[in-house]
Design goal:
The protein has 15 helices and ten strands. It is of the alpha+beta class and 459 residues long. Helix 3 packs parallel to helix 5 and helix 7 packs antiparallel against helix 8.
């Protein structure tokens, strides 16, 4: 579920900011979101590197109990799982989190062991590239390859030029439809790589890819009143603006470099080379984000850094010994995740009236095709997960399903005994009246009379 993020921040960094004084997020909103996100850190639960990354980029005190607990659990996670049980994108995300904590990903110590994550990521990235060259698609996703390239570049590890070139070609290919989130993450990787390569042809290619994506995003924002992709495509993307520092009324200054990394090229200082000279209403984009209620810790983690003018591209230059203490009044108090709302927003009351949802499952990919439909009644305000559970209760033979817990909540991996497969690149896609849902089953709330379709699909 790494794929839900990134679009508008590319604009904040690459496009002229004409409404600087209107692009600062309210501090009380930032602090309440941070409090909610930190409240999700609990001993024994699977650690989320995106949460640690966000805390670091917000300047949270590295000696706070929640920060120390999460960092230690992330170290233990990579020591035990990075080599055999993580995808390339997961390893990359953990490297970014460690870099943001001023930890050397080449020497991660935990549980009496020491591991070097860089060669592990390089090997997994090579496997992605081999399948991309051989089969026309990576082993996992282009989103993961983008994270891989960004992590290798920021760690100054080498091995990112080939993937960066491949990403640029994919972005520019008319026969390669790529979602907003993947294009935006790719831009992060291309920006980092651009000033690190000397070949003028390669630099021109990276330049063209970033220019193309940026202007496509501008066009979409103009057409959709500030929205690019969906609300979850606007979290990580906003972060790229942190390097431009152009759209925050009180930008966070770039701190000193940590001792373990050489200086990174200031990729966005030359950002005006990457975009057409167009005006951009960054206040409009900020309004889309700040007027939405983010419930999941993962969603909060992706949007918070952007709200204070930082970016994933800042992770290797943070001064971990000098926390900014943006929210000194938080203390040890915590509120439940999901209770945070932007100023002026009110919590939607739970509907007491029952609703009827039509639910169908379809497989036309493997074996003999099949299709089953059912109508279920659930309390108003129920999530889609509750609909699936009710359908299984009513007809367990046809509507059995299985989920796995992810950082984005429960993810449906199997329905009617048919499971998605990374090797076959198959998964269960959920749609409403033919349109893909932009939320997971644990957060999406159907309305009465809605037709939800689960279709076995490929990616």
């Amino acid at each position: 579920m790494l794929r839900l993020a990134l679009a508008t921040g590319v604009l904040l960094a690459l496009v002229g900011c004409t409404a600087t004084e209107h692009c600062a997020a309210p501090q009380d909103l930032v602090c309440r979101l941070l409090q909610s996100m930190e409240g999700s850190i609990k001993p024994g639960e699977v650690p989320n590197p995106s949460v640690l990354l966000a805390m670091s980029l917000l300047g949270v005190d590295t000696q706070s109990p929640s920060y120390k607990l999460l960092l230690q659990e992330i170290k233990e996670e990579v020591v035990t799982r990075a080599q055999k049980a993580m995808t390339s994108g997961q390893v990359a995300e953990h490297i970014l989190a460690l870099l943001s904590s001023c930890q050397d990903p080449r020497q991660v110590h935990a549980l009496g062991q020491t591991i070097d994550l860089i060669p592990i990521l390089q090997q997994k990235t090579d496997e992605e590239m081999a399948e991309l060259e051989d089969k026309g698609h990576p082993k996992t996703t282009l989103f993961s390859v983008s994270l891989d390239t960004t992590a290798l570049c920021l760690a100054r590890a080498g091995g990112y030029r080939g993937p960066a070139v491949a990403l640029a070609k994919e972005v520019l290919s008319p026969s390669s439809p790529i979602g907003v989130d993947t294009r935006a993450v790719a831009v992060l990787a291309l920006l980092c790589a651009h000033d690190s390569v000397e070949d003028p042809e390669v630099r021109d290619l990276l330049h063209e890819a970033v220019w193309t994506v940026t202007n496509d995003f501008l066009d979409e924002q103009e057409e959709r009143n500030g929205l690019i992709g969906n609300i979850y495509s606007m979290g990580l993307a906003l972060q790229v603006r942190g390097w431009g520092m152009c759209c925050h009324s009180h930008p966070v200054p770039l701190p000193d470099l940590p001792h373990h990394l050489p200086p990174l090229p200031q990729a966005l200082e030359a950002s005006r080379d990457f975009y057409a000279p167009r005006d951009w209403d960054c206040a409009q984009a900020f309004a889309v984000v700040t007027n939405h209620t983010f419930e999941l810790p993962m969603a909060i983690a992706q949007v918070l850094p952007a709200l204070v003018g930082t970016s994933y591209l800042d992770v290797a230059t943070l001064n971990c010994g000098a926390p900014t203490d943006l929210c000194p009044s938080l203390g040890a108090h915590r509120v439940p995740t999901g209770m945070m709302s932007p100023p002026g927003a009110s919590q939607t009351p739970r509907e007491s009236q029952d609703i009827t949802v039509h639910y169908s499952i379809t497989n036309n990919l493997q074996g003999i095709p099949w299709h089953y439909s059912i109508s279920v009644t659930v309390p108003g305000g129920s999530t889609l997960l509750k609909v699936l559970e009710r359908a299984e209760e009513m007809d367990p033979e046809n509507f059995s399903f299985r989920t796995e817990q992810t950082s984005w909540g429960p993810f449906v991996v199997s329905i009617h005994g048919l499971a998605g497969s990374d090797n076959d690149r198959t998964y269960w896609q959920f749609l409403s009246s033919g349109k893909p849902l932009d939320q997971g089953v644990g957060t999406y709330k159907p309305h009465s009379g809605e037709h939800i379709q689960a279709v076995f699909s490929t990616y």
